[in-house]
Amino acid sequence: MASAQSSGGGTELGQFLRARRTQTRPDQVGLTVGPGLRRTPGLRREELATLAGMSIDYYVRMERGKETRPSPAVLDALARALHLDDAEHQHLRELAARAARYAPEPPPPPSRTVRPHLKLILEALRPSPAYIISRSMDLLAWNPGGLALYAGLADWPATQRNLARYFFLHPTARTLFPDWDELVRGCVARLRSLAGTAPDAPDLTHLVGELLLKSPDFAKLWERYDVVGRKRIQKTFHHPQVGVLTLSGQSMNLEGTPGQRLGVYTAEPGTPDHDAMLLLDAIALEPAGHRDMKPEQQPHTRP
Questions:
Q1: CA–CA–CA angle 10, 13, 17 (5° rounding)
Q2: Burial of 242 by CB count in 10 Å (0-12 exposed, 13-18 middle, 19+ buried)?
């Protein structure tokens, strides 16, 4: 099982290369495999080194985290050999840059304070479900539909509400999302990408450590080290209270609050999906709010 933390930038770079190598079949890169059983899944180290035009010893040092200053040309050669897409290629560059300047002291985590005007925006977006999450997918603020859309999430204490935790550990999640397998692959890819460049950040390591321990599905996906997940504009929910609804989703980074993102779902007025969204907003059991709020501090919401 993969560790939630890495001992240094070179280690994380090596883990990424190893994961991509073992998941790349020889036929995908134009190699002909002879008869007989291959003990190594994917490419062998020497095969990748040859494809990238480098010595096997140099590549082995990179994969073991002992070579932390590969040149841009080396990184580009590895990206071509492994057929990395643009996002994976960029992630490889970021891991190499971090390995070259690795410092054992992690940077402070991003602010988790949601500014007052952002809470007003959440209220103004009703009846569209909307919420603000941290980089590690903690739910920081929400309007009624934004919380109720994830059926059963309101049963958890506000400080435990995290979308990744919900996807893997809440019993309702697998029935709520008909494409749960694809959804969680994208979720883990996002966390993997973040953890690759900030592997010692407490907000990420605590969540990843918990999910590695409690969810075999998460651990299996984490080991793959995918950093690119498919994002769907539309998402279907099989909601136990309002039935099936398909909503268009949009996620955006918030200016002036690094690490915080606004998520909002919409539906075309006059459609059954919009009617279901209106019903969800009306029956939501918990009002708009944010983490660590006492009941008397909750902002006023419409009845």
A1: 140
A2: buried
